[in-house]
Prior knowledge:
Number of strands: 0
CATH class of the largest domain: Mainly Alpha
Oligomer: single chain
Amino acid sequence: MSGLTGGLASTQTAMRLLAPALMFLLLGAIWQLIAFNQTSILPPLGGVAADLAARPGFYLSNLWVTMFAALVGFALGALLALLLAATVIHFAFLRAAVVPVALLLNVTPIVAISPALIVAFGFNAVPHIIVAAVAAFFPMLINAMAGLQSVDPQAMEVFRSMAASRSDIFFRLRLPSSLHFLFSGAKLAITAAMVGAIVSEFMGTSHGIGATIVMATTYLNLKQMWAAIFVSALSTLVLIGLVGLIERATIRW
C-alpha cells in the first residue's frame, strides 16, 4: 500500500513538472514560428539568448537599478500599508476614510504621475521609488486589513477574558493569524513594485530595465527589448520565490 501511495505521489510530482515544461516548449515553438515568418514582430529566441550572453553586465547593471527602486519602494509601501491596516482595525471609523483614498491611488495610472514626480524630485531614484511604493501599497493594505480581521472569535474571547491588552492581542493573536494574508499580499506587492519601477523608468532616466526597453523600442532593437523583458520577468519570479521561501520558513502550521 505504501509503495502504491509513493508511486502515485511520484507520478503527480512528475506531472506537475512535465505540464509547465510542455507548455513552455509549445510557446517556444509558436514563438519561433512567428519569428521565422515575421521578423519585424518577434526576434528568434536564439538571438535574444545570444544578446543576453554577449552583454550580461549591461543587463545586470540596469536590473540592479530597477530592483533597487522596486525593493525600497516595496519596503516603504508594505510598511505603510501594514501600519495603516493596524490603525484601521483598532479605529474602525477610519476605514471609510482610508479605503477610498487607497483605491484612488490604485486606479491612478502610474504613467500619469511619473512626470509630476520627476518635476518635483528631479532626475534621480526618488520618483521611481515613490511609484514602486504606491504600486505596492494597495495590495498589501487590502490583504493586511483582511488578515488582521480574520481572527478566530473563540480565540479573541479567550484573550479578552484574560484582560489582554490591545498590544498583546495584536502581536500574539492578530499578527500570527494574518501571516498567510500578509505573505499573499507581499507576493502581489513585490510584483506591483517591480512593474511600477519599470514603468516609471519609461521616462526621466537612461538607466534601468524600463529605460532599456524604451531605448530598444526607439531603435527597433527587438533582441534587446525582449531580452530586457525576459530579465524583468525572471527577476520578478525570483523575488516571488524568495517571498515564498520566507513564508515556508516562517509559517509552520
